[in-house]
Amino acid sequence: MPREAEPSANEKQFLLQALQEGLRLDGRAFDEYRKLDLTLGDEYGTADVSLGQTRVLVNISAEVTVPFPDRQFDGIFQISTELSPMASPHFEPNRTTETEILLSRLLEKTIRRSGALDTESLCLVAGSKVWSVRADVHVLAHDGNLVDAACLATVAALRHFRKPDTAIESGELTIFTPAEREPVPLGWLHSPYCVTFGFFGDEGETVLLDPDWREEHLAVGSCTFGLNKHGEVCHVTKLGGEPVEATTLLKCAAIAGQKIKELSDLVDAKLAEDGRRRDKGGLISELLSAENERVPDA
Amino acid sequence: MMKSHPNGHLSHLNRTDGSATLSNEGYQVVASVNGPMEAQRREENPFEAIIDVVLRPLAGIGGTRERQLESIIERALRQLILVKRYPRCVFQVTLQVTQTHRGDLINDKAVQAHKKLAWVASLLHAAILALLAAAVPLKEIATCVVIATPREAMGREPIRNPSAEIMSKAKSLHLLCFTTSGALLLAESEGECTLEEWDAAMCAGRATCCRQLPIGEIGPNVGLTGV
User: Fold this and answer.
1) Own/partner pairs for B69-74, CB < 8 Å, 24+ apart?
2) Among candidates B37, B56, B59 on the partner chain, residue whose Cβ is nearest the Cβ of A61
3) Can you identify the CATH homologous superfamily of domain B140-227?
4) CATH number of the CATH domain containing A271
């Protein structure tokens, strides 16, 4: 497939000069996200995020399988990020690129390793039957900052997902269809999101939040913060590029802390709206619900 | 459930040459087309363009079923695109399923075979819309329809674009695809049928897909000799 066309020398000069004069090409402030929109699907566990021109769709599916022999009490949770030529023509199917590896590792660190999903709650019969939850990240259009968009979409889709309810009676497992019992949400512990910055200038002194595709290509470095709205940091990832002053990173962290609240408010609002849309109301829905009383984590 | 009309959306992805979304009865496909682009050395054809169809399911990675659907779609599109005009080039057609009925996913292993033909219709329509959006030079466009031949108890008339319930009860299913000039492009069938039932299905399909042609030209033998 063709190599990705890089921004030309003119584009580069124009963009960098504009940044020196305090302007971004799309007219955003330096610490402003592009227009962010989240759509939850009609079926449970589908979230479609558009961040400017970047578009990511995440679908969650679950099936019952045998656990790994060394983790008999834990369910299986995997995130699959395969980039197709739809995202950008230079992605070849069935061939991993650097972008894909970085995306999957960052999602892994933010969501899986931070323990956002309680995998122990996915266990049905220790050692023989567990839920295997799979998140498929489909990038439909790549216009920079895939990580933030994909992370938001994955978290929203996982919180939107409902798995079939189950019961175990004298060692026999029954899985109920949605017609028999309302499906139940996953055991969710906290909602981490990613905030990405791009650094520009000789010493990385100019910081841009949410770099788009062109800015990503011309940045001298980038840094991703993964944290939740309580300010608990899952990871700070700065992979390669120019060294950046510690004070700059601290400023970034402060901005990330503010932005995370906006992101989590957006997801909470959309999930609440979706819940209201589905709520048939009345006694029947209360009786049909198989959900336990629990304090929802926001 | 109310029968919903197909719904399309064009050129909404910015990194591709052409893109389209098609949703029909709870099934949604996003198609994108890139091309003509230079083909890789190892797969180029010095006389005509190659068409690279990739079908990606909503959950999991594609398997044998996806490869089979890809080859059906690739063969159909090859007849429509002016491939001889673009030697050593490639047209990349990516089809991403973005919505299915949840029931299809839970029993993913035992995929309902009758769903397959209905999928091909949606996939092919989405691919053609994306080709149009990408301004790829085409000889003509094509439309397809699924025809169900019902069992005795359900009447004798062939049913066009049947619902999932009718499909599961039908005696045979036919996917028929016709080009704008009335030529048969693709015919895939499942189940068993007599020659009369096949003729009736062909007539119904031709009448649905080639409505723009004058009645006289929609005879049973027009265009069967090929595109």
Assistant:
1) B69/B116, B69/B119, B69/B120, B69/B123, B72/B120, B72/B186, B72/B188, B73/B120, B73/B123, B73/B124, B73/B127
2) B59
3) GHMP Kinase, N-terminal domain (3.30.230.70)
4) 3.30.230.70
